[in-house]
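Bench notes, bay 3.
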Amino acid sequence: MAERNLDFDRVIDRRNTDSVKYNFAINKELPKDALSMWVADMDFQISSYIQEALEEQVKHGIYGYCEVGEDYFEALRSWFIRHHDFEINPGWVVKTPGVVFALSMAVKAFTNVGDAVLIQQPVYHPFSNVVTNNKRTVVSNTLICDEQGNYHMDIQDFEDKVVRNNIKLFLLCSPHNPVGRVWTKEELTAVGDICLKHHVIVVSDEIHADFVHQGRHHVFAGVKEEYKDISVVCTAPSKTFNIAGLQASNILIPSAALRHPFKKQVEASGYSELNAAGAIACRAAYGHGEEWYQAVLKYIEGNIDYMKEYIDSHIPKVKMNKPEGTYLVWLDFRGLELTNSRLEELIVKKAGLWLDEGSIFGDAGAGFQRVNTACPRAVLEQALRRLEEAVNNY
């Protein structure tokens, strides 16, 4: 195995400008020197242990179908016990190529065409897509944003929407992307009890669970024993270890009554085994990626602190609340009183930045922009200088 300090040294100020993530086909014209800070993966090399495991697979030279062994489940189980105090039974795990894929399978498994599905906007836009693309109806229990820019669940509206729309399925984002909330046990209990009362299945996207800066992440199925009967918990090493392109996710479904129809939909899609590289990377990440993960977490928290100080000091017209979780910052540009198109012009044409415009997360996201801080500090500094000049001279 590689020396331990090599993992820490990989969290460094270097950027791979040839990365595939900067070559996506896009629907907007960008300046040639635009900084891309929208896509939700990282600009850091992966753990040396993951790299080494993949290199060993390449040397092996056989790329047939594969199935994971007990060591895969042990690595997964150990990680969740250590980091989230949650015990996983291997029988609960359904492997999928991604969390968005799993969300779509859940919509198919637990609702019928025309049914309403509850989400909490502004939220990661595939939540809406997997509902509408499967010919279901989106209902939003829109989050409340107070005068300080803090977000809260509207619990009364949540139950009203469940009852009024005969909701069978709720897609929970925990920690929440893009607003950065780490839901408290009390908040999760409030919506969980309503879902129990009205027989609503909860699909909890917990892909950012390992990035918590304030508070504590609670696995939804572990908040109360009864929640295991209504829970589909979507997890993956992809965000934590920067291996999204290897497409390996672990969906935790304690209830056989939910697991069987979910698996049936996965099988109906034509999907079966994880790709071999994804399985190997997942096992190496959870088994040996601790030092790299801790270094990345510390580095990102430093970036967030730096960004908050810079925004407050140099761009006071823009408001930033430090996220409790994720490595995504939700910037509030509403004080500039710009239309969505004018705000996009400011960000893209004037600042030369490629961010995620808030309106794609729902109407409640209008006037916001989402920024990925999982990048070298030098890149973040450059982006903030560009933003400062663009906003203050607009």
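Next record in the batch:
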Amino acid sequence: MQTLIEDLLTLSRISTRAQPFVSLNLTKIAQEVLFDLEIYVQQTGGSVEIGELPTIEADPLQMRQLLQNLIGNALKFHHPQIPPVIKIYSEFLNNQADNIFANSQLCQITVEDNGIGFEEKYLNRIFNVFQRLHSSIEYEGTGVGLAICRKIIERHHGKITAQSKLGQGAKFMIVLPINSHT
């Protein structure tokens, strides 16, 4: 119950306790998150490979929360007898005309794993509060983590989506402007 309350508070504070956007190196943030999750990585026998990530204008605490949730999920939802392998990488995208920031460069950050995956028919559901694809007995958690991720990305004027096949891992893609405006 305490975890649920903390997760709901985190969700509600994304807008109310938001920090100003500053220039931050996402590679450094990802490395700090990985340091925080080091024991969890060891417990699962997993490995996390962090590629070169961009420097963007963003809220540092929220970017940390975003990466912690996505890496934590990738570690959690792994096959029982197969250690999780997680890759985090980025690429710059061509700007589309319908983008809110017509003059901003976009980047896509991808968090990819070899875990249990999910059926893509549930894609719209996984980013909603309390929407779980597995029971809390199978996998602990509150069903709020990906909703927090979506709300963080929306505050940063970006988009989040995923690709997956059941049993074949998942790939979460985040598109963000390099220079955002609050």
